[in-house]
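User: Could you check the structure of this?
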Amino acid sequence: MKRTDIHYVGFVFMIIMASCDEPEVVQIDDNTFEEIYQQFHGKYQIVQSMSEQAVDIDGDGRKSTDMLAEIPNLSSTNLALRIYNRSFTQLDTIIYLFTQAWSEQIISSRDLANDTTLSPAYAIQGATRTFTLNETRDTLRVVQADADGIDLEQFPLPEEVSVDAVGQIKVVVRKKLFTSDGWQTVKITTLYSRYTMAT
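Assistant: Sure, the predicted C-alpha cells are below.
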C-alpha cells in the first residue's frame, strides 16, 4: 500500500467517524465496484474552464471568460477521483474521494490594506471530499463533512458535478476572486478528461 493511499483512507475514515451525519453508502457488489472503478478512478486534466461573465484576473486589462488564459498555472492543476473497495479500506463500505486542485490566489494582509494595488501570487492547492454517485452514474454529489475543516470560501462545494457521454467530468463552482474590478464571485464551469488511472 502506497503512503498516499494510506493518507487518503485515513482521511476518509476520520470524516466518517467524526461527522455528525451518517454518510451516504452505496451498496454494490464486487462486479459493479469494478465497473465503477474502471469508469471513474484516476486523474483528470482540464479541457476547458469558462466563467459565466468575462473578468480580468491576470491584470492585463483584457476581460475574458477563459479561465485557462486568466488564471496563472491553472492548466497544471487536475481533478482526482479515487474509489476504494472494502478489502482496501477495511470498512464495510465503498469509499469515493473527490480531490479538486486549483491555482489559488495568495493575498497577504498587507496587500489587503490597499485593494487597488493588489497583485496576487498563486499556489496550487486543493481539497479532498467524499462523493456519491446516482444510479445512472451521470451525477456526482460531493459531500462536505462537518469534521473536515475545509474553508468553504477558498474551496467552495461544487454546485454541480456531472458526467457527459464520453466520460468527461463537468464541475461547476462559484469562487471569490480578485479582479481588475475588485472582488467578484465568479461562476466557473470546468471540463475535465481522464489522462491516467494511476493516483
